[in-house]
C-alpha cells in the first residue's frame, strides 16, 4: 500500500512540474526579443521577405509608416499570432484550447499544424532512438559485467582505452569523421555508406526485405554516433555498480554459507547492480523522441531534433512549444517508469517515510 501511495504522489507531482516547465518556457517566448512578429516585420522591410510581404510593406509605406511598417499593422500581426491578449489568457489558450499548442498552425508552414509536423517526424526519431537504445544496452551491460569480472586484467585495461577514446570524441567530430572516411567524400576514402537521408530512391515500391536492408544501411553511421555518446558512461556505471555489490558484506556471507562465487554474483549481486541502470532508464526514454540535433543535421535525417532546431532559429514558437510540451511529458512519464523499475528490481525499498 505504501508503494501505491508513493506512486500516486509521484503522479500528482507530474502536473505542477509540467505546468511550471511550460509556464517558464512559454513566458520566455513572449518576452524575449526577436519573436515571430519581429521576424515578419524584418522580412517586410526588405530583409529576405517574400513577394506577399513586400507588397504588404509597400501598402504600409503608402500609409506613411516609418520604415514601411505602421504601428497599426504591427498590432494586426500581434492579433494574428494571439499576442494581443494578456499572458495568462495566451497560456490558457495554448494549454487547454489548443491542446498544448498541437492545434496551432505553424508560423513557418501555415498550412500545417504543429502536431502534423511533429507526427511526421516521430517515426524517424523512434526508429533511431529504439535502435540506439537496444544496441547500447546490449553492448554496454555485458561489457560492463565482463570488465567487473576481469577487473585489473588485460581485458579491463584494453577495453577501458577504447571506452574512454569513444567518450572523448565529440559526437559531431565522430559523425564528420565517419562521413569523410566511409562515405566516399574524400579521394581514396571508402564508399561504403550513403551520405545521408533515410532511404534510397526506388523506381517502384520495394519489398519489405529490400526496404529493411536499405533502411538499415542508411542507419549504420548515425546509430554508431548515437551509441558512442552514452557508451562509456553506461559501461563504467555497470562495471562500478557490480564491483560495489561483489565487495559487499552480503555477497561474502552468501559465499561463506557454501554458495559458489558464480552463484553469489549472478543470483544476488547482479540484480542489485542493475538498480543504477534502471534509475536512468526514464531519462533515456525521453531521448527516444527528442532526437539529436547535431547527428540529424550532419546526416540529413528529418527527425525531431532537427525540427526543434529549425523551429527555434526560425522563431516558430508554435512548433517549438508543442515539441517542448511533448518531450517534457515523455520525460516525466519516464521518471515514473524508473521508479516502478526501481521497486521491481529491489522489493526491499520502503516508501513509508517518503
Assembly form of the protein: single chain
Summarize the main sheet. Answer: none
By CATH's scheme, which homologous superfamily of the largest domain applies? MetI-like
Query: Count of helical segments?
Result: 16
Radius of gyration computed on alpha carbons: 26 Å
| Share of residues in strands | under 5%
Whole-number tally of structural domains:
2
CATH class of the largest domain: Mainly Alpha
- How many runs of DSSP E, i.e. beta strands? 0
Poorly predicted ranges: 48-66
N- and C-termini, Cα separation: 13 Å
Shape: globular
Question: What can you tell me about this protein's structure?
Answer:
This protein starts with a helix and ends in a 9-residue tail after the last helix. The radius of gyration is 26 Å and the shape is globular. It is built from 16 helices and no strands. Mean pLDDT is 82; it is low at 48-66. It has 354 residues and is mostly helical.
Task: Kindly list the characteristics that best describe this protein.
single chain, 354 residues, mainly alpha, MetI-like fold, 16 helices, globular
Secondary-structure blueprint of this entry?
Elements: H1 2-31, H2 36-44, H3 51-62, H4 71-81, H5 87-97, H6 114-149, H7 154-168, H8 171-182, H9 208-246, H10 249-256, H11 261-273, H12 275-279, H13 281-290, H14 293-298, H15 304-313, H16 317-345
Amino acid at each position: 500500500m505504501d508503494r501505491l501511495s508513493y506512486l500516486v504522489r509521484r503522479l500528482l507531482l507530474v502536473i505542477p512540474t509540467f505546468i511550471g516547465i511550460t509556464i517558464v518556457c512559454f513566458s520566455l517566448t513572449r518576452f524575449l526579443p526577436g519573436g515571430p512578429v519581429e521576424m515578419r516585420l524584418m522580412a517586410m522591410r526588405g530583409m529576405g521577405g517574400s513577394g506577399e510581404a513586400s507588397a504588404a510593406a509597400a501598402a504600409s509605406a503608402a500609409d506613411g509608416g516609418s520604415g514601411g511598417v505602421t504601428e497599426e499593422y504591427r498590432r494586426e500581426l500581434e492579433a494574428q499570432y494571439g499576442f494581443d491578449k494578456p499572458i495568462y489568457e495566451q497560456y490558457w489558450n495554448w494549454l487547454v484550447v489548443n491542446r498544448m499548442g498541437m492545434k496551432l498552425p505553424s508560423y513557418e508552414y501555415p498550412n500545417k499544424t504543429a502536431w502534423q509536423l511533429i507526427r511526421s517526424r516521430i517515426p524517424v526519431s523512434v526508429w533511431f532512438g529504439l535502435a540506439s537504445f537496444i544496441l547500447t544496452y546490449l553492448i554496454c551491460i555485458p561489457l560492463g559485467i565482463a570488465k567487473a569480472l576481469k577487473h585489473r586484467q588485460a581485458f579491463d585495461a584494453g577495453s577501458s582505452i577504447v571506452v574512454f577514446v569513444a567518450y572523448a570524441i565529440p559526437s559531431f567530430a565522430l559523425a564528420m569523421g565517419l562521413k569523410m572516411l566511409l562515405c566516399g567524400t574524400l579521394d581514396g576514402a571508402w564508399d561504403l555508406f550513403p551520405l545521408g537521408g533515410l532511404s534510397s530512391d526506388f523506381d517502384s515500391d520495394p519489398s519489405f526485405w529490400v526496404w529493411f536492408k536499405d533502411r538499415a544501411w542508411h542507419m549504420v553511421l548515425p546509430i554508431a554516433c548515437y551509441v558512442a555518446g552514452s557508451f562509456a558512461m553506461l559501461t563504467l556505471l555497470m562495471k562500478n555498480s557490480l564491483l560495489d555489490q561483489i565487495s559487499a558484506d552480503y555477497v561474502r556471507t552468501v559465499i561463506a554459507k557454501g554458495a559458489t562465487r558464480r552463484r553469489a554474483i549472478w543470483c544476488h549481486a547482479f540484480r542489485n547492480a542493475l538498480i543504477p541502470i534502471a534509475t536512468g532508464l526514464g531519462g533515456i526514454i525521453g531521448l527516444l523522441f527528442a532526437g539529436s540535433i547535431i547527428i540529424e543535421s550532419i546526416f540529413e535525417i528529418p527527425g525531431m531534433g532537427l525540427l526543434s532546431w529549425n523551429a527555434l532559429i526560425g522563431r516558430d514558437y508554435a512548433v517549438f512549444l508543442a515539441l517542448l510540451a511533448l518531450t517534457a511529458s515523455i520525460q516525466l512519464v519516464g521518471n515514473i517508469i524508473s521508479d516502478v523499475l526501481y521497486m521491481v528490481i529491489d522489493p526491499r525499498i520502503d516508501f513509508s517515510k517518503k
